[in-house]
Design goal:
- This protein has a single domain, classed as Alpha-Beta Plaits (2-Layer Sandwich), CATH 3.30.70.
- Helix content is 29%, strand content 16%.
- It is built from two helices and five strands; from the N terminus they run E-H-E-E-H-E-E.
- It has a three-stranded antiparallel beta sheet, covered by helices on one side. Strands 4-5 form a two-stranded antiparallel ribbon.
- The relative contact order is 0.19.
């Protein structure tokens, strides 16, 4: 298993997980429900972590994660071409239908 990313907020990892799954990359979020342990263990130990299961998927997964961070810095809000839902620029994944924004 390979650790890809840690975030204080699970909302940052969920779109990444969905994008990886859409590319058939077997992944999971560790510490998804560890918030209740806060206070008993160091807070950084409770933060959600995105992991993949296969070493062979690492390069593709890292590329997907990089495209998410690069794209969100450079783009504006967008309309999903599938369901026409208005999506804020921070997201490259449509919350309504799951369409992943193609990165140029």
């Amino acid at each position: 298993m390979i650790h890809l990313k840690t975030s204080e907020h699970i909302t940052e990892l969920m779109p990444l997980k969905t994008a990886l799954e859409l590319e058939n990359i077997d992944c999971f979020i560790k510490n998804e429900f560890n918030g209740g342990g806060l206070g008993e263990i160091p807070f950084t130990e409770t933060w959600p972590e995105l992991w993949i299961k296969n070493e062979s998927d690492k390069a593709k997964a890292l590329s997907i994660i990089e495209s998410f961070s690069t794209t969100s810095e450079a783009m504006a809000d967008w309309d999903c071409p599938e369901c026409h839902e208005r999506i804020e620029r921070e997201f490259q994944l449509c919350w309504q239908c799951g369409h992943v924004l193609a990165v140029e």
